[in-house]
Automatic annotation (TrEMBL), chains A, B:
Residues 1-92 form the HTH arsR-type domain. One of its GO terms (molecular function) is DNA-binding transcription factor activity. It comes from Corallococcus interemptor. NCBIfam families: HTH_metalloreg. Coiled coil: none annotated. Gene3D superfamilies: Winged helix-like DNA-binding domain superfamily/Winged helix DNA-binding domain. InterPro entries: ArsR-like_HTH (IPR011991), HTH_ArsR_DNA-bd_dom (IPR001845), HTH_MetalResp_TranReg (IPR051081), WH-like_DNA-bd_sf (IPR036388), WH_DNA-bd_sf (IPR036390). This is ArsR family transcriptional regulator. It comes from the Bacteria. Pfam families: HTH_5. Keywords: DNA-binding, Transcription, Transcription regulation.
Length: 105, 105
DNA sequence: TTGATGTGTCGGAAGTTTCCGACGTATCAA
DNA sequence: TTGATACGTCGGAAACTTCCGACACATCAA
């Protein structure tokens, strides 16, 4: 059993696409799977990873399961990124000076 | 040979920590490796992944190599996240209604 | 030069991820 | 009830990741 790891959940392009799709509204598994060049078990397993990362929530409707997006764990990634966006214009400018100097050759 | 994949590069906690460390300034490989419970080859290989994702730049200084942070590819992640932060207060509010309703049991 | 240091990379081991077919279970329609 | 549908999950294959020791090479100090 693995821990809920948001970064790891986002490392797969299929899972990122699933999350993007779910922005438009909840979707059943077969419906989702038909949009990928993948079998249903694979999509089901990607959904399991997203579920463990708490990025999706499942809602049973009859014999289908609608998956809903829960974007809240993405704030962990956003917070991590902030450590770099607030990383100081001065150092960024200095870096770009160096890169400019290199490209001048 | 693998493509430069920023999301995949961030999926490993050691690599994320390396990037955080490099905010404070460039570091040589042995210097970096001493901060982890890891051998030098492992750190060197993590740096290779970060290099392919263009998140770091190497600067040879004598027999050492100083690695510099280049945070610019992180904007790809930031842009991707924006698709969710601008994902509409109305849907988020609706989601939280549902979650509240569930927790009321 | 010789010897020590800093680094990249290869070969291989161990673990993890990704995918599929097959199966079991629940639900629905008739 | 019977048959079809929707889904989760298991077993296993293939590919990838992560790590290490060993080695090669360049640089420095003497």
């Amino acid at each position: 059993m693995s821990e809920p790891d948001v970064f790891a959940a986002l490392s797969n392009p299929v899972r990122r696409e699933i999350l993007l799709q779910l922005r438009k509204g909840p979707r059943a598994v077969n419906d989702l799977a038909s949009g990928f060049n993948l079998g249903r078990p694979a999509v089901s397993e990607h959904l399991q990873v997203l579920r463990k990362a708490k990025l999706v929530r499942e809602e049973p409707r009859g014999r289908e399961r609608y998956y809903h997006l829960d974007p809240r764990p993405l704030s962990e990634v956003d917070d991590w990124l902030k450590a770099f966006t607030h990383y100081g214009k001065q150092r960024l400018a200095a870096l770009e000076d160096v890169l400019d100097e290199e490209s001048r050759k």
